[in-house]
Amino acid sequence: MTDFSIIGKPIAMVDAAGKTTGAGKYTDDLSVPGMLVGRILHSPFPHARIKRIDTSRAAALDGVVAIVTGKDAPNPYGILPVGHDEHALALDKVRYVGDNVACVAAIDEATADKALELIDVEYEVLPAYFDPEESMKAETNLIHDNKPNNLEKDYHHVFGDPDRGFAEADHVAEARFIANEVTHAAMEPHSTLAQFEIDSQTGKPGRLTVWSSTQVPYYLQHKLSLVLEMPMAQIRVIKPLVGGGFGGKSEVIPLEIIAAIAARAARAPVKITYTREEVFWAHRGRPRTIIDLKTGVKNEGRITAVKARVVQDGGAYCSYGVVTILYSGALLGALYDIPNIQYDGYRVLTNKPACGAMRGHGTVNVRFAFESQLDELGAKIQLDPAEIRQRNLLRPPCVTVNGLRVQSYGLPECIEKVVERSEWKQRRGKLPRGRGLGIACSHYVSGAANSIIRSDMPHSTVNIKIDRDGGVVVFTGASEIGQGSDTMTAQIAAETLGCSLGRVKIVAADTDLTPIDIGSYSSRVTFMAGNATLRAAEQVKKQIAAAAARKMSCASEELIFRDDRIVKNKDLSADGVGAGVSPVPPSASVSGRVEGQILRGSLQQKRKDEGPRDWMTFEEAVVAAIDFHGALTGTGSYAPPPEARGGKHKGGGVGPSPAYSYSAQVAEVSVDEETGEVTVHKVWAAHDCGRALNPVSVEGQIIGSVWMGMGQALTEEMVWKDGMLMNPGLLEYRSPSSVESPEVEPIIVESIDPEGPFGAKECSEGSLAATIPAISNAIYDAVGIRLHECPFTPERVLAALRAQRGQKKINLTEGIDPTTPAKFREHGGSLWFRGRGPERHPLDPARREGPAAAAGDD
Amino acid sequence: MKKELIELRVNGRSHEFAIEPSKLLLDALRQDLQLTGSKRGCDDSSCGACTVQLDGVPMLSCTMLAASCEGQEITTIEGVSEHGSLAAIQKAYGDWGGAQCGFCTPGFIMTVTHLLAENPRPTEEDIRGALSGNLCRCTGYSQMYHAIKAAIEAEQKGMAEAR
Question: What's the whole-model pTM score?
Answer without folding.
Answer: 0.94
